[in-house]
Design brief:
The structure is a single chain. The chain is an alpha/beta fold and 722 residues long. Among the domains are: 101 residues, no CATH class; 94 residues, Nucleic acid-binding proteins (OB fold (Dihydrolipoamide Acetyltransferase, E2P)), CATH 2.40.50; 159 residues, P-loop containing nucleotide triphosphate hydrolases (Rossmann fold). It has a seven-stranded parallel beta sheet, with helices on both faces. Strand 18, helix 18 and strand 19 form a beta-alpha-beta unit. Helix 8 crosses helix 24, helix 9 packs antiparallel against helix 11 and helix 23 crosses helix 24. The radius of gyration is 30 Å and the shape is globular. Bound molecules: adenosine-5'-diphosphate (ADP) and magnesium ion. Adenosine-5'-diphosphate binds next to helix 11.
Length: 722
């Protein structure tokens, strides 16, 4: 997909019409300057039809005037008055302040960025209508950056609500409105839903809905539009969800047409590993491995998401899947998002698999060039069957001889592009192989793909899983290994920090081990690092009788490995760490964790961190230290949830309600199926309907399905084929 506007798309490269082109166009390319096209592209508007679905963010009510005397702070209103004062002040910064007078009542208008023309428009004596949110300012009631226009006594009021569109710097509402109005007039707006389906679902007509949202009629109340409960919004939200469901279904179906090596269980290496393990698999582990094993045996690429709470034992399942591929003569890649996690996997899998004659190779970005080349050579030659590492494994210079299975841990931390790169790895290897074999008989040359197993400890509520992962098969480990004692969570305000110090000291003196986690500060890694270093100094000085280690992301890999190994071996009793330990650290003897400034962390992160303790038989505790002053409502709600629940799925469900899905999945994930209008927290019912309708359309109305996808997804072409 081109990120640039296409003022003159060539017929071959343009998918659909550009904003500037298209039959029946009233706006010729000459009329939309390239600068405007670039700004439209920033808003995701590349085709003229995208304008139709660029819907108002909110509406301004200019249908009546509020007397200034009745205006309350917090209200968004339209007022009218005479300018009786106009002044530019320079403190604290250049500001235009005007006083609007209506009888004895007054209201101030304040502008931080303004043009001389604006200042003139608001000259003393002018009659002005201003729309904006009122608030209490220094002089009394004021509006910051209101929308203003000069009026005379009989300037009529608007008769309907005015849409306010999402926009970008330098693109005015007026221009956007003009372009959108034009598109509404020029483009056909056929309903993509077959009439009987639409009627049965009691959905509003598409064209009517669209016109209404862009130009509300006078009888419509602002509130049903603002909270998006109006039938017109319902229709648009339904359409959006339907498009998402359709694209995922289509993708799911296409997968069964693609080709992957069939890797049937041989029970040679896998059974050998099971026989050596000091524990038996839980029922849940057995169940998910059976699902994976079955998928691997198919000649189509598996795309399975393995969900399991922190500590549920996903690693052993991954190891079994890897062995099944390896015992069929295919290579396996195991990737993790951080060096620490990847390294833990490397150590664990080496311990399990070396006795079976499988030696993993380690590949990470921090290896020296020579070591990296050596590792890449072992992978390319097929000398190693298992490569473990960070995203360095995705890089172009790494080629596999015959990659059969790619395992991605903490998959939500990786982006769409990286998943794409992975698939291409298998393709490359298959190409080489068929070339080496003379290749001609292989009609599907270069089409062979690796199976994919994605793992995640981020429990995903049902609506999200259905929506974002409808293209994946999902396995869930819903049971923890036996013998775990639940972690006790304590909320402690910062004022009682000393007590926490003492608790750490006592626990460590008794032979337990503890983590002290420092949070990310203001999104700055540098600041986080500084806090971690200072905390380490502080704790080292406070506890001369303890050995205190320090682990953070900027530590040279060898040093980091040494610290982690020392902690694991029990040589260090206390580990001060940044959130790098969030994933994958496995030290069963560690039974106390202090999370400093816990109020700054997200719920998923807190849950992950807490999962680092309670891995052994000892009673474990997690202390959440928080700053009691400056605690926001949201932070308070988060701490309450994490305090009350230890069930990852329950926590995720609450998190969804608290924050909405975008943040829960992380920005990177959002490319797949970003929803602009529907809200998974609120529109569960619509989602259910959309899911059923997607199946119905694909089965009975494939033309309608195609038209619908074209309308909603033409712009996101690449994402549909991840
Ligand atoms: P996660 O799902 O968070 O990746 P791990 O795979 O790291 O969890 O497993 C957590 C711990 O539980 C490890 O020490 C692992 O060896 C252990 N474990 C895994 N499965 C079992 C089991 N069936 N019985 C006992 N311990 C297990
Ligand atoms: Mg894990």
């Amino acid at each position: 997909m081109s990120g640039n506007p296409l003022p003159n798309p060539s017929p071959a490269s343009g998918r659909g019409r550009s904003v500037a082109e298209g039959e029946g166009s009233l706006v010729t390319p000459a009329k939309i300057p390239p600068a405007t096209l670039a700004k439209l592209a920033k808003l995701g508007i590349r085709h003229r039809s995208d304008l139709l679905l660029h819907l108002p963010l909110r509406y301004e009510d200019e249908t009546h005037l509020a007397p200034i005397a009745t205006v309350q702070p917090g209200e968004t209103v339209q007022v009218q008055g005479i300018v009786t004062h106009n002044e530019v002040s320079f403190r604290p910064r250049r500001t235009l302040v005007c006083r609007l007078q209506e009888g004895d009542d007054e209201l101030y208008l304040r502008f931080l960025n303004f043009y001389p023309s604006q200042q003139k428009q608001l000259a003393v004596g002018k009659q002005i209508r201003a729309v904006g949110e009122a608030r209490m300012g220094y002089f009394g009631l004021e509006m910051v950056h209101p929308k203003c226009r000069a009026v005379d006594d009989d300037t009529p009021l608007n008769t309907s609500l005015s849409p306010v569109y999402p926009t970008t710097a330098g693109l005015s509402q007026t221009i956007l409105r003009k372009l959108i109005t034009n598109a509404l007039e020029v483009l056909p707006l056929p309903d993509t839903l077959p009439e009987p389906v639409r009627k049965r679902l009691r959905l509003a007509d598409f064209a009517d809905s669209l016109r209404l949202l862009h130009n509300p009629t006078p009888d419509i109340s602002a509130s049903t539009l603002e909270d998006r409960s109006h039938a017109a919004w319902q229709r648009i939200k339904f359409d959006e969800l339907l498009a998402q469901q359709l694209s995922m279904r289509v993708h799911h179906r296409e997968r069964s047409k693609r080709i992957a090596p069939a890797l049937a269980a041989q029970h040679r290496l896998t059974d050998a590993l099971l026989a050596k393990l000091p524990f038996a698999l839980t029922g849940a582990q057995q169940k998910v491995y059976a699902e994976i094993s079955h998928d691997l045996a198919q000649p189509h690429p598996m795309q399975r998401l393995l969900l399991g709470d922190v500590g549920s034992g996903k690693t052993i399942v991954a190891a079994l899947a890897a062995l099944q591929a390896i015992e069929n003569g295919y290579q396996v890649a195991l990737m993790a998002p951080t060096e620490i996690l990847a390294e833990q996997h490397y150590l664990k899998l080496s311990e399990w698999l070396e006795p079976l004659g499988v030696s993993p190779v380690w590949l990470s970005g921090s290896l020296k060039k020579k070591e990296k080349t050596a590792a890449a050579e072992r992978i390319a030659s097929g000398d190693t069957m298992l490569a473990i590492g960070t995203h360095a494994l995705f890089q172009q210079s790494v080629e596999f001889r015959n990659l059969g299975l790619a395992i991605v841990d903490e998959q939500h931390k990786f982006g769409v592009q990286q998943r794409l790169a992975l698939r291409a790895k298998g393709t490359q290897a298959a190409k080489d192989e068929s070339r080496n074999n003379g290749g001609a008989e292989d009609a599907e040359e270069g089409r062979n793909e690796p199976h994919q197993l994605m793992m995640s400890a981020t429990p995903i509520p049902r609506t999200l899983a259905m929506s974002y992962y409808a293209d994946l098969d999902v396995s869930v480990i819903d049971e923890l290994p036996p013998g775990r004692t639940p972690v006790v969570t304590k909320l402690v305000s910062d004022g009682r920090r000393d007590e926490v110090f003492e608790r750490v000291r006592v626990a460590c003196m008794k032979g337990q081990q503890a983590y002290w986690v420092c949070p990310l500060i203001d999104e700055s890694e540098a600041l986080q690092l500084q806090t971690a270093i200072e905390t380490h100094q502080l704790l080292t000085a406070a506890f001369p009788e303890l050995r205190v280690g320090l682990a953070h992301g900027k530590l040279p890999p060898a040093e980091k490995a040494a610290v982690m190994a020392a902690f694991k071996a029990g040589e260090l009793q206390l580990l001060v760490a940044t959130t790098v330990i969030e994933v994958g650290v496995d030290v069963p003897n560690a039974s106390l964790m202090v999370i400093d400034h816990a109020e700054r962390m997200g719920l998923a992160q807190l849950h992950q961190l807490r999962g680092r303790v309670g891995r052994g038989a000892a009673e474990s505790m997690c202390v959440l230290l928080f700053q009691s002053e400056k605690l926001s409502e949201l932070a308070r709600a988060r701490l309450k949830i994490i305090y009350e629940s230890t069930d990852g799925f329950e926590i995720a469900q609450q998190d969804l309600q608290l924050r909405g899905p975008g943040e829960l999945l992380g920005a990177r994930q959002s490319g797949v199926a970003m929803l602009r209008f529907a809200d998974l927290g609120e529109d569960e019912e619509l989602l259910d309907q959309a899911r059923l309708t997607a199946d119905e359309l694909l089965q009975h109305h494939p033309e309608a399905a195609r038209a619908h996808l074209q309308r909603w997804m033409a712009n996101k072409h690449d994402y549909l084929h991840v």
